[in-house]
Design a protein that fits this description.
The complex is a heterodimer.
Chain A lengths: L3 E9 L5 E10 L4 E5 L6 H9 L6 E6 L2 E2 L10 E4 L11 H11 L4 H15 L14 H13 L5 E5 L7 H18 L2 E6 L2 H7 L2 E6 L2 E6 L1 H6 L4 H6 L6 E8 L2 E4 L2 E4 L2 H6 L7 E6 L4 E16 L3 E8 L2 E8 L9 E6 L3 E4 L8 H4 L1
Parallel strand pairs in A: 3-8, 3-9, 6-7, 7-8
Antiparallel strand pairs in A: 1-2, 1-4, 4-5, 9-10, 11-12, 11-14, 12-13, 14-19, 15-16, 15-18, 16-17
Chain B lengths: L2 H10 L6 H22 L6 H29 L3 H20 L1 H6 L1 E2 L3 E2 L3 H43 L1
Antiparallel strand pairs in B: 1-2
Helix pairs in contact in B: 2-3, 2-6, 3-4, 4-6
The chains are: A alpha+beta, B mainly alpha.
Adenosine-5'-diphosphate (ADP) binds next to helix 1 of chain A.
Chain lengths: 357, 160
Amino acid sequence: MAQLRLEHVDKIYDNKVQAVFDFNLDVKDGELIVLVGPSGCGKSTTLRMIAGLEDISRGHLFLDGKDITQTPAKDRDMAMVFQNYALYGHMTVYENMAFSLTLRKEDPNVIHKKVLAAAEILDLTSQLNKKPSQLSGGQRQRVAMGRSIVRNPKVFLFDEPLSNLDAKLRGATRREILLLHKRLGATMLYVTHDQTEALTLADRIVCMSMGHVQQVGTPLELYDSPANLFVASFIGLPPMNFFDVTVKGDKLEGKDFQVPLTAEEQKTLSSYQGKEITLGVRPENIVEGGSLQIKVFSNENLGMNTLVHGHLGSARITAKLRGWKNYKEHDVVNVSFDRKHFFDKETTNAIGREQKQ
Amino acid sequence: MNQEELLIKKDRMRFIKNKLPANLALLAILFDVFYFVSIYQSDVRDYYYTIMIGASILYNLVFMLACFLSSEGIKNYKLGYAWLLAGLGIGQIVRIFVLPAQAHATELKKVGRVMADGQYTFVVVCLVVSAVCCLAAALIGGYRSVVLKQYQATLETKSA
Ligand SMILES: Nc1ncnc2c1ncn2[C@@H]1O[C@H](COP(=O)(O)OP(=O)(O)O)[C@@H](O)[C@H]1O
Ligand SMILES: [Mg+2]
């Protein structure tokens, strides 16, 4: 059992820089929460406050209903896995994993059982007598996790644990973390700047920008109904296309192009008649056939899909079309949008999201 | 200790180094150093004892090297090094009767007793402690190596 709750948490550093503004989150038992956002948005700061490595300037932190805002890090029953694994080079894997328990003077036989159990979970049983220098990056990462697992903490905290790995290993280790989460059923908080990691790992994502929480929701919610322009642009690869358009009756008018609206979309935009809004369209929501014309300037084959870059009217657009295409520069492709997102120009919030939910 | 705890204790040996005998072997080296630093003090202008001290220094080098290697070897449960340690331990006892005992028993005209009572006692104690450390390391290390080997054999038959 481990429920974590953050209530109106602020962080103001000594140099008066406010890194986190009014952070609220309710983490359920066994949930894997991913904090995602661009570099410098306050993800690490938030995680470090939860771990107790930074003071909480304002607000409260609860673990299983108990206020631990002032509890020192070592008494919080949380384990943090760092980006650099911080393993002891002169110790074997076994000794590295046993170390924190040895320090606490636990019974060697009990330590032994815990280490072997953790090694089993992490598939490190055959590596126990090796030194970290003899292991691959992914294995070292698992040893670092093993050190946390043996302590049997209530909450696991990960700060960009995969950023030191190459792309291939990152995918593999990501799947391992997911598997680990399933096996342990532990509550985990995971920080990353990589939206792909967030989408693949999370039960729920917390998307942050400049110290503010932008949206909390399942990966599908963030992908399919982003709360605002920032979330829309941050989640999804290649990123969403944005167009400045004006609502005119049954269509949107952009610079040298017009986008027809469905009846439902017209209803959503009824209060925006004649006003300027931002239209967002994901590259994968663009399909061939329709009234819109893309003037192609480059064609990237990804195998199953083709990325077509070009112009819609005078606006830049990227489309992810199904199949292997061979468009040349100056070709014209007729397309339509099968899913559109609308954003208020002033507030940057999504239009019509309230009614939907 | 019950059966299960005993088994876990054996299992732990697969991952934990054989530290006690390894450290005992290092202790044996330390006392050997005390010994040979002490015999340097003997100021004898006698050809026989100069040769003996020279030979002793050479043996010391060999002893320290062998003992250090054994320390590392026994740390990894290598049975052969237990035998080497036993040999080295016996060697330390034998050495008492080669140089110190002779020197203590001999009186030279110019300098008197080659080795005085106080120094003799000290030297003997050093060698005896060194010997005991070697033998204990051999015994404990050897025993544990055998236990681990047998345990690993049972694991292999189990997995096979
Ligand atoms: N110790 C510190 N003192 C002052 N400002 C800091 C300190 N650590 C981080 N910051 C600032 O807080 C903001 C958030 O940092 P951080 O939480 O590390 O971002 P992230 O992990 O999302 O990349 C940044 O603007 C950073 O410059
Ligand atoms: Mg960071």
